[in-house]
User: Fold this.
Amino acid sequence: MTKIASIEPLLARVGIRNQLLVKVVTEDGLYGWGESGLSARERSVAATVEHFADFLVGQDSRQIGRIWQECYRSQYFEGGRVFTAAMSAIDIALYDLLGKRLGVPVYQLLGGRQRDTVPSFGSCTADNIDENLAHARQLIDAGWDCIRVVPSYYDRGTVFEPRRSIARTARDLVTVREAIGNEIVLGIDYHHRLSVAETASFCGMLPSGTLDFLEEPIRCETPEAYAALRRLTDMPFAVGEEFASKWQAAPYVEQGLTQYMRLDICNIGGFTEALKVAGWCERHYIDLMPHNPLGPVCTAASVHLGAAVPNFSWLETRQTPVEELGFHDPHLFPVQMRMEGSVYVVPDAPGLGIEVNEEAIRSADAPQHVEPPHLRRPDGSVTNW
Ligand SMILES: [Mg+2]
Assistant:
């Protein structure tokens, strides 16, 4: 009765983004939900979920660690973020299922909860300093003690010019710090749009103490580039949302290249892999600061992970008074994680503690694929989104 009967990817457009949900059903009719985090390339992940379903149907749904290994090793070629995004969703769904089967919340399966609430950070994403200052004040008044801002663009449409961006962003950050004082943690996500040299220049423009963390200033394919950057600045980094395995996270943890681990449970390989990375980070006194830009399934999985590990700082949230993104549509997801001010309350319900309105998702208009902006430099060359 615990054997897997079906594994199905379900693509939906929710708010301004796609969400790829995965439903795993066992022979006794129980089911669990997972979500995959490879935003904008969901169709590739859905096809991989179907590959995995070919050999997972009929297997015991409770052998979660073994299933992870079989999926990872099932192709000759090692690793790959499409594979682990698919595995993440399946792994999360299997934990949801097992929690429901045993009548316990998922965090009980991870060693029990270590905290009563899971703190979050909120984002200020306006493109002008006045609005961002107002949003920061609104978040602080509502209880947030950690705030993240986004960099200035040269042109918010499709053009990114780094020097203008870092000059204006550095100036704005000094203004924000003066306004919010030193008790609030302040970070920025540069969305890997800079080079090593540009990042060093940016950090040099900021008086010491302006910024508490700099998230992904450069791309993360090359840990040695972060090592070079580390020699040019003492700024704490927050890196990891794109990691697709413990192997990818390893050099960043072991060589001190990130000071916060931004792992995404829907990309790194679900609970099974996230817990291993968390343990590795604990050894190096690095706190998790999980990436959570998706929907209620990702948020719930991240809350359970955050509840169960000792080394945790803030969970990213896109559910704040200053952002209206529609990712947590209550019609599509009638039961979700509950927030009290800036913190998520650790739930008591079995499994993840979420409900999906499957009928509504299936009856919605055909999913409209959302493609992220393709940024270019003023000379027409391609740069990073
Ligand atoms: Mg980021």
The longest helix spans residues 81-102.
